[in-house]
Amino acid sequence: MARYYPCFMVILALAAACESERRAPTGPPALQQESVVIRFERSTSAAGSDEVLTITGLGHVTWREVQSGAVARLRISVDELLMLERAFDDARLDDLPEELRGSACEACPMVVLTRGVAAGERSVVLTGDPRDHPREVRDLVARLDGLTGRARAERSAAMGGGGTARDRLPGGLDVALSLGRPSIHPGESLYLRLTVSNPTDRPIRLSFPTSATADFRVESTDGGAVWALSGERAALQLANDVVLAPGESRSFEEVWLGRTDEGDPVSPGSYYAVGIVPAERGGETPPVAFQVR
After folding, report:
1. For the chain, which residues make up each domain, given as ranges?
2. Which helix (H) or strand (E) holds 95?
3. Residue 121 parent element (H or E)
4. Which residue, among 275, 203, 276, has the nearest Cα to 241 in the 3D structure?
C-alpha cells in the first residue's frame, strides 16, 4: 500500500487543480448572498408556486410572483424576525409529516413552509382545508400571509410612474423599460420593469447562454458603471431557450437598492437605467433617466 501512496497523492493534486480551474469565476464578481432562513410558497395549482416569500437572517424580505415576474423587497426588524422564528418553533415542524393534509378543498391553495434553507432545512407541505391544520400552524401561515400582503403593498406604493423607454430590436423584438419612480432619496429602492414583446406574426426564439433571462444596469450620466444585476447575482451556466408566440409579452421586475456594485450608497445626482435581454437576438432598451435627491 505504501508504494502506491505517492501516485495516489499525485492523482489527488491533479484532481484538485482541475476542480479549481473548473470553478474559476468567468463573469463579474457576485456579492456574497445572505442565507435564507425562511421560505413561504403558495400555489393554486400543481403547476408550481404562484408566489414565493423568502426571508434572510438579516431580515431582508423578498416576495416574487412567479407568473407575472412582479417582485418586492422590504426589511423587517430583528424583533419581527425573532417572532417569526418563534412561531416556527411553536408550529413544531420537525414533529409534523412531510405533507399535512386537511379535508378535500378544491379552492384551497397549497402552501410550503421551509425553515433553514441554507443547511438542514425542514419543509412541510400544507394541503386541503387549513381549518383542519393545528392552530399553531395556522397562526404561522397567517403571519407569513400578512408579510406577503405588506410586500405587495410596498410594490404598489413604489410603482408611482417613473419614465419609460421603448425600442424595437433588429430581431423584431419590442423591449420597454419602466421605472417605478422618477426620483428616489438615498437609501430608497427603485423598481425596474423590463417588458419583452413579440409584435410580429411569427414566433421569436430567444437563446440565453445562462439561466439569466433579464439584466438591468444603472450608470452615471457620463456613462460610468454604477450597478448591474448580473454583478450581484450569479447565473447558472445553463443555456435555455424562450419562445415568444406572436403577440406574447413577458415582464421581468427587479429592485435596485440604491447601491453600487461594491455595496456603497450612491451619491445624489442624475443617473440612467437600462434593461437588457441577454440573448443571442437580444439587446438593450434606451436609457431612462432618474434622480437620486
Report:
1. 36-158, 164-292
2. none
3. none
4. 203
Computed on alpha carbons and rounded to an integer, the radius of gyration of the chain in Å comes to 23
| C-beta of residue 212 within 8 angstroms of C-beta of residue 272 | no
In sequence order, the 6+-apart residues with CB closer than 8 A to the CB of 280 are: 206, 207, 208, 209
Q: What pLDDT, on the 0 to 100 scale, is given for residue 45?
A: 76
Give the residue from 148, 131, 197 showing the smallest Cα distance to 169: 197
Interval 31-56: pLDDT, tens: 345 788 999 999 987 667 799 999 99
β 51-56/36-43 pair status:
antiparallel
Express each pLDDT in 168-225 by its tens digit.
Answer: 998 899 999 999 999 999 878 899 999 999 999 999 999 999 989 999 999 999 889 9
pLDDT, tens digit, 9 for 90 and up, residues 17-33: 333 333 333 333 333 45
- By residue count, the chain amounts to 293
Return the residue matching grid coordinates 454583478. Answer: 231
d(CA 39, CA 114): 5
Question: Fold match between 36-158 and 164-292?
Answer: no
Exposure letters 237-246 (e unless 16+ CB within 10 A, then b): eeeeeeebee
Exposed e or buried b for every residue in 45-83, given b needs 16+ CB within 10 A? eeeebbbbbbbbeebbbbbbbeeebbbbbbebeeeebee
> Which DSSP category does 259 fall into?
B
Question: Rounded to an integer, what distance in angstroms lies between the CA atom of residue 191 and that of residue 228?
Answer: 14
The pTM score is 0.76
Task: Please give the CATH number for the structural domain made up of 36-158.
Answer: 3.30.1560
Mean pLDDT of 242-255: 94
For 64, 87, 129, 159, 215, the CA distances from 253, given in Å and listed in that order, are: 9, 31, 33, 11, 10
Kindly report the CATH class assigned to 164-292: mainly beta
